[in-house]
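F.,

This is the one I mentioned.
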């Protein structure tokens, strides 16, 4: 950003200086601008003035590219993705994969949730990578396994769901968690689900993986300069170059370089790697499951509803699990049949720059997994006795961003709940999209038909309130905020009679001296919190 600003200022200043100099030198034949670099038999070559015009053309092109670069909003999505990732790392208490080593496992739960309680209900353990971790999502209730848990509860099953996952992990890492950590002792699961994804056959943890990288047509130093001046165009060039290079192997498959991502995924399902994956991971996992005596099932978790995706990345792998005695429940054909309608196209992925599961994909995977459990393992789970789920739920904020907000319940009930929250003071502590301004996000465990929201605080100057809610035509949160307006003063009240099932509150407030402030928020409901996705 600073380099881009400096170059813009310098180019403008130099252009102005040159324009003034050329204007003053127009009638002066001895001016440097009237000279040429050299002459041959009286013919002038490369007049100095031509370089001035060439500079003007370069400045015009530079600022033209700046306009194109600025109109591309991908940059803000990339920045927001980084912010969400950092917030999730803090929220879950996860810092790096190496932190877990061979003895710890990455439980996906809001930090500070306390130790796992003693077991009173049947438990389901879900293992996976970034799809389970919720990469790109700012509401953990919209991760597919949490939607599965809500769907099971809606159907009257009284069970608990725990998830263990982390970015860039593989099936081998998940086997290590089961064998070498206390996850089974702590959770005591009755059913285990492994959410298989396309990069799971990676054997890097065993020292036998293929390296991958994002190529660039530029040298590293030139790329740094270009990406600083034109960040969005740089990403577009990288993306096009990656697709072009993915058709052939990269010749530099060594410690410094590797394969493009798409080629790397293809290498993982080639015969040589699959033989190792089967011998070192799949067969040992099958043996472990038989010895454990707990159903362990494989559910592929695709991020788009295309049969081609199955043919290229799943078809050769899934039979290995079945041969090892592990049941596989493949949703790919059903996904393609139910969600290929273009109305879902914008909701397959977490964002325009993030291919992890978005609202449509997560809803499908959650409901599909609930169908599998009900149809195949219903006898293991316990019915609560209230078919169709509870008639009413607590208005419960169970997730939020950033983590410093830390809502503390003062009162929780089905009709009204009140929390104390810490509103951050630094702009870097906020989410920004899709509002394009800083805000905090409070996520409800169950969608709430809000009737009113009130915020109080001595240091509160004003606040704007937005809601995210279930889109009835789609069946999930469409991530389109609806404004309830701005209120001023130390007490701000909003009414909402829309009847929408609200999943999140987005609050953008101003506080005295832009300092952190302790606020009280009270949410009242119209009732009907028994609804799920």
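My design for it:
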């Amino acid at each position: 950003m600073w380099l881009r600003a400096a170059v813009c200022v310098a180019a403008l200043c130099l252009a102005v200086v040159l324009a003034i100099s050329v204007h003053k030198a127009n009638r002066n034949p001895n001016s440097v601008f009237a000279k040429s670099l050299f002459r041959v038999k009286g013919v002038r070559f490369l007049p100095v003035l031509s370089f001035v015009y060439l500079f003007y053309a370069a400045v015009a092109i530079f600022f033209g590219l700046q306009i194109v670069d600025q109109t591309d909003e991908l940059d803000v999505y990339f920045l927001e993705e980084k912010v969400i990732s950092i917030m999730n790392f803090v929220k879950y208490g996860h810092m790096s994969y190496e932190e877990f080593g061979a003895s710890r496992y990455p439980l996906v739960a809001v930090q500070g949730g306390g130790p796992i309680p003693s077991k009173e209900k049947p438990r389901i353990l879900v293992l996976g990578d970034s799809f389970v971790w919720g990469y790109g999502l700012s509401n953990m209730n919209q991760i597919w396994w949490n939607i599965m848990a809500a769907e099971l509860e809606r159907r009257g099953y009284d069970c608990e769901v725990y998830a263990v996952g982390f970015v860039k992990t593989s099936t081998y890492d998940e086997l290590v968690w089961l064998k070498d950590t206390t996850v089974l002792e702590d959770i005591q699961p009755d059913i285990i689900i492994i959410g298989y994804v396309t990069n799971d056959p990676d054997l890097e943890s065993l020292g036998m993986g293929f390296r991958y990288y994002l190529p660039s047509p530029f040298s590293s130093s030139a790329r740094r300069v270009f990406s600083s001046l034109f960040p969005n165009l740089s990403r577009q060039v990288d993306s096009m170059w990656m697709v072009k290079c993915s058709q052939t192997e990269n010749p530099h498959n060594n410690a410094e370089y590797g394969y493009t991502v798409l080629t790397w995924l293809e290498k993982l399902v080639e015969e040589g790697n699959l033989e190792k994956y089967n011998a070192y991971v799949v067969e040992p996992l099958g043996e472990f499951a038989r010895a454990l005596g707990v159903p362990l099932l494989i559910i592929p978790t695709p991020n788009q509803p295309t049969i081609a995706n199955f043919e290229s990345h799943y078809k050769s792998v899934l039979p290995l699990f079945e041969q090892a005695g592990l049941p596989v429940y493949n949703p790919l054909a059903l996904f393609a049949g139910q969600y290929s309608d273009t109305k879902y196209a914008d909701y397959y992925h977490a964002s325009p720059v993030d291919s992890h599961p978005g609202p449509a994909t997560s809803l499908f995977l959650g409901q599909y997994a609930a169908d599998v459990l009900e149809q195949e393992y219903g006898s293991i789970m316990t019915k609560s006795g209230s078919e169709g789920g509870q008639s009413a739920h607590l208005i419960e904020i169970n997730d939020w961003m950033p983590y410093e907000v830390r809502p503390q319940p003062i009162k929780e009930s089905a009709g009204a709940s009140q929390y104390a929250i810490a509103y951050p003071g630094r702009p870097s502590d906020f989410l920004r999209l899709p509002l394009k301004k800083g805000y905090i996000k409070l996520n409800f465990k169950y969608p709430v038909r809000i009737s009113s929201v009130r915020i109080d605080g001595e240091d509160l100057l004003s606040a704007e309130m937005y809601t995210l809610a279930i889109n009835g035509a789609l069946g999930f949160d469409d991530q389109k905020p609806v404004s309830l307006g701005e209120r001023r003063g130390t007490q701000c009240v909003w009414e909402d009679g829309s009847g929408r099932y609200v999943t999140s509150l987005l609050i953008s407030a101003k506080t005295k001296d832009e300092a952190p402030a302790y606020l009280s928020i009270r949410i009242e409901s119209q009732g009907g919190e028994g609804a799920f996705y």
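The chain has four domains: 2-71, 99-109+119-207+270-377, 220-266, 397-525.

Talk soon.
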